[in-house]
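Quick one - inputs below.
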Amino acid sequence: MSAVANELASSQGVSRREFLLRLQAMGGLLLVAHGLRIAKAAPTDPPKYGAEGMPHGTVDNPLVFLAVGDDGWVTIVVHRSEMGQGVRTGMALIVADELDADWTKVRVQQAPADEEKYGNQDTDGSRSTRHFIEPMRRCGAAARMMLEHAAALTWRVPVAEVRAVNHEVVHQKTGRKLGYGALAKQAAKLPVPPREALRLKTPEEFRYLGKGGVPLADGHDIVTGKAQYGIDPWFKDMSFAVIARSPVLGGSVKQFDGTAAAAAPGVQKVLQMPATVATAKFHILAGVAVIANSTGAAIAGRKLLKIEWEDGANGSYDSDAYHVALHESARQPGKVVRESGNVDTAFQSSAKSIEAEYYIPHIGHATMEPPAAVARIVNGKCEVWAPTQAPQVTREDVAKHLGTTPENVTVHVTLLGGGFGRKSKPDFATEAALLSQAMGGRPVKVTWTREDDLHHDFLHTVSVEYLKAGVGADGKVSAWLHRSVAPSLATIFDPSINHEVPPELGMGFINMPYDIPNLRLENPEASAHCRIGWFRSVSNISHAFAIQSFVSELAVNANKNHRDYLLELIGPARKIDPRSQQDSWNYGESPERYPVDTGRLRHVVETVTQEAGWGKTLARGRGQGLAAHYSFLSYTAAVVEVDIDEQGRIKIPRVDVAFDCGPQVNPERIRSQLEGAVIMGLSLAMFGEITFKRGRSQQDNFHQYRVTRMNEAPSDIRVHLIPTTDWSIPLGGVGEPGVPPIAPALCNAVFAATGKRIRRLPIKDQARRST
Amino acid sequence: MELQINDQTVSISAEPTLQLLWVLRDLLGMTGTKYGCGMALCGACTVLIDGKALRSCVLPIDQAVGKKITTIEGIGAMPLGAALQGAWQEINVPQCGYCQAGQIMSAVALLQAKPNPSDADIDAAMSGNICRCGTYTRIRAAIKQAANQGGKT
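Output:
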């Protein structure tokens, strides 16, 4: 704690960006928000929520976000990073709708890193759309009104008589029309209407919102090979680098011999990276770089390096031994993070107690595009091309490592070949910049090989989740004890942190919404020995797996239908104030605006079970499993159907998902996100595990770190979006909340089919009859 | 060395053992073909060599000399390639899109060999191509749509 406080204190007057942490006093409770950038505020300020709680908040100036050309083309600037979630389509769609633009005359332009100009750019936390729908609507509406104003001036008629419709302004009385292109010059000279004067569309007037129906902004470029990812920029005089990095977190290069590597064909330079690894943060790792005239030559040269590593304190990290240590911690009382009623008394008076322990290992992101970036430096100005989820952090980290100011660094945000949280960390961009500097400013591309990616990821944490319930003769829960033990992602900023921080606790652990009179939630200590980061849906993965598996176990014990048992546990429809759950985080959103709505949670459970034909008669070896989870302010429930043969091989013929994120900007991309979340959830449940021996990740490539492939994927994924026409409901997240229920639903289905209970992920061959 | 890439003859100077992937990407700046694993495990680097789908990340350049190399940049010139590209867009297959060049190249090879593939044929041809975003159900649908249209746009 003190290290964080000191770092915060020293940040005053220096670049705020260097410090991704802050302490925030709220109601006497010390909230440490780690790993999440939030805007600075004095402790006495009222709390800021949503986009305004993020650094640089929002900008809604149409002159920043859109331009109308004389030719009628509308250019819309998207300042959030595209990693497959469809933000370049969705964000532009919001502006285009209020502008009443014709989508076939819209092009999308990616903003470089510049939060002063564009507002917050951190593309994580499933919050781009919910944070920017309103500012983007205002941009579009303001520009539409400027075009209408320009037309009214041209025709010398009252502005009330004209109306923008599908890329032209119409004078309703006379039927005269002028296209946006013809009006562009004059409109640009007019003042931007103030926020309070804006006329936003009513939902009935929406052209695209809630409907979508447009092609993807990058669809054509992707299928023709033209799309530019961070690994793609190419210059004639470019050099290509790979780096041998310390296999152990905190390790360093004791000595190395690069003679043979330097003499290899195509190799231009071998050099040691100037790494400082006292605190991992987003820093580069210690290592030796090989720079060549192609990536292939650099990889071949790297094989010839002779490096002696100093492993440091994490050199003994062994994930099997650590699992035992977590297990032991989970059997001892830990820091109480939420308590109500009297658990101990309730356990004593309950007819029976049931306990179970679950294990969720480290998971690697394995983005198909591994970390990669390009940098060049000309006259002290550095340009970086990076597939980054955190453009501004990238800009400031690069500047700091180069010993310059952010003004001298331009970060071009490319498409991301997958992000999932990995590319919120700009270490790979910093490497490119440092190597360009070492090469006299020449363009250098750094590529992480797949081995590099799996050896040096910022991994999903590892956890043991211990649950114990006291149940009555009727099977109802009267007491609930849950201990979650996992190293925190905040440890990359302060290795001494040994508890989950509020954003982790608030991911499905302390904000568990069940109607149980006596409960105690504990968080025993755990320390980290590798880089922990955020992996799509983060701690929700572990918490949902444990709780949703445990509820299935309790339903089995009570001899009740899982759906009915789950609905009873959720209890009646009600709105829970997160503060009453001791959740001080609430995904950064206002507790009044975003309560936990158990009615919506019930509804996704009811919908998915009905759509999936829950309880239908299935052939031998088949089974259905259910799970539901609230995360990122959205409600998800899944039913997975398995077909398990005599050898215990698992096939997944069908998955149903019901999802309520409130109003849907582009339903088609929401569906695609949920389809993808199903596959990612199945991947991590079936195969996902990074293990450690002697501090070293043991998985090298896709043969050892398996992910779901076409022949293993469900042939039938049915997404059931809960419709709403009420745009006053605040939006929930979309990118992440589909993941958490998938693994428990799958394991519950395995149980239904075989009677085999899976408590340790990944499943691998645990469903085999012989085990 | 001379290579035949997308119906053009290209001269390069490179180690004969350098993999085709890096020749395309780093020496020629043809970056549509992607790196994903370097071990022929993920299919992101798939190209056609004399019509067969091969992983360019493990193919030494000297083994590609004298053969017809087709990459994602050139596949649209083939009716089948254009048909698949069209179906991919109509169904909005891509999420991040990074693996999709390799997916399309594998799909072209599949439909060349089997114009009306069964689900098992699709599994067999496409399971070497990983998509981490999880677009498999849409890839399958796009292949079937292109096949149903007889491989025409």
